[in-house]
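Problem: given the chain below (266 residues), write out its structure.
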Amino acid sequence: MIEFGIETNPRLDVLKELKAIAGLKVDFVELGIERPGGSVPILKKYKNKILNLLEKNNLYAIGHTDPSLKFGSLNEKERKVSLKMAKEMIKMAALLQMKLMNFHFYNRYDEINSEEERKIFLRNFSNSMKLLIKFAKSKKITLMLENLTHQHYGITHLEDFEFVIKRNPSLKVHLDVGHAYLKGGMEEIENYIKKFKKKIVHLHMHDNRGHADEHLAIGKGTINYRHIIKLLKKINFNKTITLEVFSGKKDAVASIQKIKKLWKHI
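Solution.
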């Protein structure tokens, strides 16, 4: 059965965010292990309060991490720093009893200026994931990789995302629908769903108009969610969906209801 959740805003107080989401009758919280409000030291400080809030409201947490980590960096020292930070995030996720958390594929801060550098990046990224998957497994956490929108020498092409997934069979796919739409429209979304139908364990849903990562409420942009749900039903998707809507929690809840209604009637 599909479960729906809302993401905490890492710029705000994590306890206030959790209390606000707890009152919205969702199934889970996607908790940002991200600075400033969701940094590891802050989450450690409030660990017991967070766990109590989750238990009291019959919720569980999925981990969402900082997208600026540079797992494919050509600078080995920089890559090792990102790996160290990622391990701290995984340990924090384990303390908060999370079973699933994401990392992001590529970010705009990685400088790639040639085809050779692109190949090194992909190899480094794949190797980083291999190390983190093993570490996460020791904490009983499953890792998933989220697609982003940035492009530099083709790094965000579906084929490159697949390169990393194929070399790490235990790594799951976290499909961000809005990001895929920005990259290549409805065709790109369809390609992700068909290509990774057995790997997708989590979705981010939000809307945009095809020009910027707006994170609008469902129906406020141009993404054809009716078609997306048809595709998801074909692959029998029954996992978790976060409505990653940035215009407010009221809009996120309304978006959940729209998706539920579409799912019921399609």
